Predict the structure.
Amino acid sequence: MRGTSSFLIVANRLPVDRVGDKEWRRSPGGLVTAIAPVMQRRDGAWLGWTGAAGEELKPFDHEGMHLIPVPLSGLEVELYYEGFSNATLWPLYHDVVAKPTYSRVLWDAYRAVNDRFARAAADAAAPGAVVWVQDYQLQLVPAMLRKLRPDLKIGFFLHIPFPPAELFNQLPWRNEILEGLLGADLVGFQRPGGASNFVRLSRRLLGLQNHRNEILMEGRTVRAEAFPISVDFGELDQLVREPRVLRRAKEIRAELGDPEHVLLGVDRLDYTKGIGQRLKAFGELLDDGAIKPGEAVFVQVATPTRERVDEYRRLRNDIELRVGRINGEHGVIGRQPISYLHQSYSKEELAALYCAADVMVVTPLRDGMNLVAKEYVACRHDLRGALVLSEFAGAADELRQAFLVNPYDIDGLKRAMLAAMRATPHELARRMRSLRRRVATHNVDKWASDFLTALESGEGVAEEQLTA
Ligand code: GDG
C-alpha cells in the first residue's frame, strides 16, 4: 500500500475504461495525455469513479498512474450524475437550451457525493499537496476539502461555460455552489467571460470584495482566470502523416461515392451541439438546389452519451427523424446525402475522417471550448479543409480564421457552409495556416502547465488594495 501523494487530480471519472473483465485502457482525450506526465513526474494520483455502479475497488496502478477509485451506488449515478450534474447543471450552464430540473433530492445526492470525493482526496493528499479538481460534477469539493485540509493548494477547472447572473440566479443552491468553488485558490474557466461572471456573482450574491480577478474570501484570495483548453497538436499531426491513416481517408471518400464535397460533424449526441441546426441547413441547401444531388455528402458521427437522461432520448429521436426525412427525400438507391453514425470510433478512424472531410461543421449552441474544432485543425497539415465554427463555442475566441456562424441563423449557416465549399484552395490555405499556428502554440501541455504554474505561484493581493 503506498502513502499519500503530493499531486492529486480529482475528477468524476478515472482516466481509464474497462476492456473485458479485468483489463483497463487509458481513456482517449487530451486531459489524460496532458496530465499523465505531470503525474509521473510528481508521484501523483488520480481520484475518480470507475464508471461501474456499485463497484468498490482498491487503489491500483495503470501505465504509471496511481488510480484511486471513488465508489458510486446505482442510485447515486441516477441522482448525482444523471440528475444534478446532467439534468440540472449541464442545461443551466449551457444557456438553458434545455429546461433544467431543480430537485432537492438531486441536490442532496450531489452534496453527499461531493463530500465523499473531498474526504477521499483529504485522505490521499500529502501535507501541502497540490490538488486539482475538475469540472461541474465536483463544484463543492474545493470548500469541503479546504475545511478538512487547510494546508493544501487547491485548483479547480470548469470545462463547460460559467453562466451570467441572469441564468445562474435560477439555481436554488446558487450560494452553496459559489462557496464551494471559492474553497479553491485558483478557479479556471475556458473563457474570460466565465471568470468575470464568477467574480461578479461572488460580489453580488455573497457580498465579497474583489480586486480585478481576485476575490477576498475569509482572509484568503481566490483568483478567477481563463485557461482555454486545447488538444495534443503534435500527436495528431504525427498520426495523420501515417500512410495507413491517409489510405483510410481515401477509402472513406471512395466509400461515400467520391463526392465533390464531404462535410463532417463529430459530436457526442448532445442537445448543446447544434446537430439539428446544421442538418436543417444542409437539408435546405438540397431542397433549394444549391447543392446538386450527389455533389455533397454530410457525415455525422453522433457518439452515444447519457442515454438514460430523458432529454437525450428525445434528441436522438428528433435527429434520427430529421436524417430519415432528408435521406428519404434526397437519396437514391445505394447513396444517401447524410451518413449518420450513432457509434464510437477509434482515435485513428476519427483522424482519417478529419482528413477525408473538406468542410468540418461545428455548430454548438453553447460549448465550453469544443476540442473537435481544434482536432480538425491539428489534422490538416495539407492546409486544405474548411472549418465552419459557431461563435458560441469557446474555440471561437482563438480560431478567428474559421468561417464563424451563429447556429440559430439557419440562412447564415447555409451561406457559411456554401462559402466553405466554394472557397479557393488559396483562401483555405491562408485560413488554415493561421488556425494551425494558434493550435500548435497553444496545445494541451501549455494549458496544463499554465494552470499549474498559476496555481503554484499564486500570490494574493494585500487586503487594502481590494475594492468592493
Ligand atoms: C467538454 C466540454 C470542452 C467524440 N466522439 C468520439 C471521440 N470523441 C472525442 C472528440 C473530442 C471529445 O470527444 C469531445 O470533446 P468536445 O470538446 O468536443 O466536447 P465535450 O465532450 O462536450 O467536452 C467542451 C471539453 O469538455 C474539454 O474541456 O472542450 O466544451 O463540453 O476529443 O474527438 N473520441 C473517440 N471516438 C469517438 O467516437 N475516440
User: Anything to note?
Assistant: The pocket of GDP-alpha-D-glucose is lined by residues 28-29, 159-160, 229, 266, 268, 301, 303, 344-347, 350, 367-372, 375 (CB under 6 Å).
